Amino acid sequence: MADLHESIDLGSPPVEPPPPSAEGLCWFPSPPPPIYSCTLTPDLVAKAREELQEKPEWRLRDVQALRDMILKEQPNLRTRLDDAFLLRFLRARKFDYDRALQLLVNYHGGRKAWPEVFQDLKPSSVKHVLDLGFLTVLPQPDPNGRYILCLRPGKWKPNDYPFVDNVRAIYLTLEKLIQPEENQVNGIVILADYTGVGMSQASNPGPFLAKKVVSILQDGFPIRIKAVNIVNEPRIFKGIFAIIKPFLKEKMAERYILHGSDLRSLHRNIPRSVLPEEYGGMAGHLDMGVWSRVLLESEEEFVVEFCQPDPLEGVELPDSMLYEDQASGQDDDTFRGLRSQLYYCY
Q1: Assessment of whether the complete model's pTM goes beyond 0.85
Q2: How far apart are CA 12 and CA 99, in angstroms?
Q3: What percent of the chain has pLDDT over 90?
């Protein structure tokens, strides 16, 4: 049984990092070492204990318990089994073994279900998305230690490239963000600026694509999204949110905060000290190239992680994991109604 896992049992081989620079990686924390040693500060250890039920004295025992479950219940799943990797899933599910295992299966299931996103997934393949300024990560975390993923959907034009390229860039960013242990404990915050979003962007993904994106973020990735701040949303955002909301769990839907153009409202949730000047902040101009360099300098590690044979070969997944459009007629009818609503709002 163990032979099925041995090729990647120790996780991705360590990649020699490039030297830190003022422009690149120096501001972003490093991932844990290949042989696990906790990098959390005493304050974060206490926070993980309180919020995630993580007991330092039992941490590696819990990791071993999850590892044993994988080998017993998913013997064909060719997944990483190293401590640092499995801890991501335990922390994301508050050390509930069963839920952590399901999240791991979902994580790999997303790759099988959506090959156009995960095929040959590496930063150089989404450089055009990064160059257009679709997303970045702000250099400073908020006072709660949460890094801020800034999305600007209005920078994308449907005629430029497929929407799935945006999803690829988001996924690579999440993969990079989840590496440091502090991000696994603190979670992240999303800031979405809808300036420039019109009918073409709003109607292009459709409900089926929206469902797949939400399914991955909610149930298929080991990251804690603590808040989603929406700014400069147009009138048609009600229609956009109507597409997304049916797929959101109640807890996640409650974390969406709509600020409109009211920057004071935004500053009550994200302080000015960490925001760029474009959002009334004090952290200088928004530099979209900084995060692009962080990702591109990580090209080799993503090639090792994602440009390999399918880790789910031979694994049987339930139909619900495959995101098959079994109710396409219903989705089409729903989308037609929402499209009319979008036009009306626009």
Answers
A1: no
A2: 24
A3: 56
